[in-house]
Structures are given as C-alpha cells and as structure tokens.
Specification:
The protein has about 350 residues and is of the alpha/beta class. The chain contains 10 helices and 13 strands. The strands form 2 sheets. Strands 1, 2, 3, 4, 5, 12 and 13 form a 7-stranded mixed β-sheet that branches. α1 crosses α10. The longest helix has 15 residues. It is globular. The protein binds zinc ion (2 copies). One zinc ion binds next to loops.
Amino acid sequence: MAPGAALQPCELPTLSPGSDEVVVQVAGCGVCHTDVGFAFDGIPTRHALPLVLGHEISGRVVATGENAAWLGRSVIVPAVIPCGSCPACRAGRATICRQQYMPGNDGDGGFATHVLVPSRSLCAVPESLPSGITLEMLSVVADAVTTPYEAIRRAELGAEDVAVVVGAGGVGGFGVQIAAALGAAVAVIDIDRERLDLAAQHGAGLALDASSTDLKGLRAAVRTFVKESGRKGVGLKIFEMSGTPAGQATAFGLLDHGAYLAVVGFTPKPVELRLSNLMAFDATARGNWGCPPDRYPDALQMVLAGKIVLTPYVELHALEEAPSILDAVAKHAVRRRAILRPSQSKTN
Ligand SMILES: [Zn+2]
Ligand SMILES: [Zn+2]
C-alpha cells in the first residue's frame, strides 16, 4: 500500500533469502485490527510505504538461506520476531526487543503469495494435522491466539479465578477458550448477540450484552457470577480484547479490589478514565505486544489438542478480496477472524 492510498495488487520481485532468512509460501494470513490501523488510521509502519501488510502468517518454507533445515516444513511465522541478543531479549522481554522484525510493519508481510522472513523463531507445524484443522487456519495462531494466550499467561490465570473477557470477536473468542481451558470461570461481554452465543458455547459461563446493559448492570451481573462460581481468587482478571474505546471504558469500569486488567485489543482512539481507580483498588493494568516466539508451541498445542477450536471463529477469503475485507474489519462488520488465502495454496 502507498501512503493514504487504497490497497492495490502488485507483483512481488523474486524473493531470495539471505543466510538467516527463509521464503514462506503463504497458506493463510489473518487480518488484524493493527493492519486496519496501518491502512486507514494513519498509524505509521516502521518500514516506509508502499508495503505489503499482514503479520499473521502460516505457510510452507520453499527457500532457505544457510539454515536449510526448514526447507519444506510447515510453519507459523510469529507476528513479532525478536533479535534474541539485545538487552531486552536477554532480560526475557523479547516482545519489546527494539530490533524485532514484524512482517507487514518492518518489511513486506503476508497478504501475498510468498513472504521473506527471518528463520529464527519460526514455529514448526506438524505435517499431519487433526481433522478440521488446516495450515491456513493455523495462521491465526500467529497473533489472534498467541496474543491473548500471553496476556492470560502473564495474568497467572488459574482455576480459582474469574476471568472477564471484554470483546468476543476474532481475539476475544480465543481468549475465552484459553481462560476456560485453564479452569477459570469466564464471563464475556460484547455488543453482538451472535458472538456472545458462540462464546457461551465455547467456554463462557456468563455472556453479557453491553448494548442493552449499562456499566452498573454489568458490574452487578459479574458480582453475582463471581459469588455463584465459588472461585476463591482475589480480584477479577479482566481482559480487554475488543480494541474499542467503549470496551476499554467497560473493562476499566469493572475493576474491583485487587483486579488485574490486561489490555490486549488495540485502538488509536483515546479513552477518558479515572486512572486513580488503579490506586484505590490496588489494581494492576498491563499490556502485551504480542507473544514471545518460544511460547508459540504451547499455544499451538492447545489448538491441536482441541482446547481452542478455530473453525467457528475464522472465515477464509481469497487474497484478492483484501481491500474489501480490510474495509469490513475496519467497520467491525466481520464477526470472525478473516484469513486471506492466496489461490495457489487452496489445495493445502
Ligand atoms: Zn495483529
Ligand atoms: Zn532483541
């Protein structure tokens, strides 16, 4: 894409990998709100435009540099690829590595037939997948699954906790399932009845419609749910996954004593909050920029083991539909995680 211009198809040059790079033939690439931010909201990409967007990639390695071990392997490309050697990486904070590489931000991304990425940190996908799971569907592990996975891991969510997931869309639907798989009682809040029903079928014990219930009503319903859940954990663990100002305000408004608030969704829009509530409630708020690649195998395993189901939460589209799909995602008109699929990989 070019600055301020609509997305356009273009011919890529032949990609030849450097010594520590691979070329991945894209099976699928998920569409994220971050892509929308780059495309429509003036969020600058780190690499100058024009640029191919897309950072939620699965595919097959078709060319390698010196590290030929990956050749022919099915992989998930982490959305954030840290350098592995800087002070942040060495301190175990790989997600804030300043030398990190993000496809579709630091270089051409996955809304393409092929993508050139660093070979470090690739997540291997078994060649034989459980029925109902395809390599193209697994693209969503690269962000929509691993980002809430990491947020939930950092929250140390366990079986004695009550999790509240705000936003049951492309990311929140996975968040609900991960939280439930860890044994937590899960309440979900959204404004879309269909999403709420789906979340209730896949892990949520309570589904609240914020379009018909005000904050006071939501708080009361969550309080009752906590009591009835019998969980002993102190403080709600709240996960903001809607990436909307309204969702963020709701998530913050649900803080109780000892609460933990994880900000997972992204919006460039500001929201007015009484920040002192953190102090008054002795609460914690935290964000996470993706997930360190070394945790991808565990998240992938949850998918392969059926603890996180993908099918009801994803929809596949031809790569050529990218402009209209991004537009629909920007308008929050896509209920599921959209995956763009180049036509060549239809047989994968
Ligand atoms: Zn993303
Ligand atoms: Zn680093």
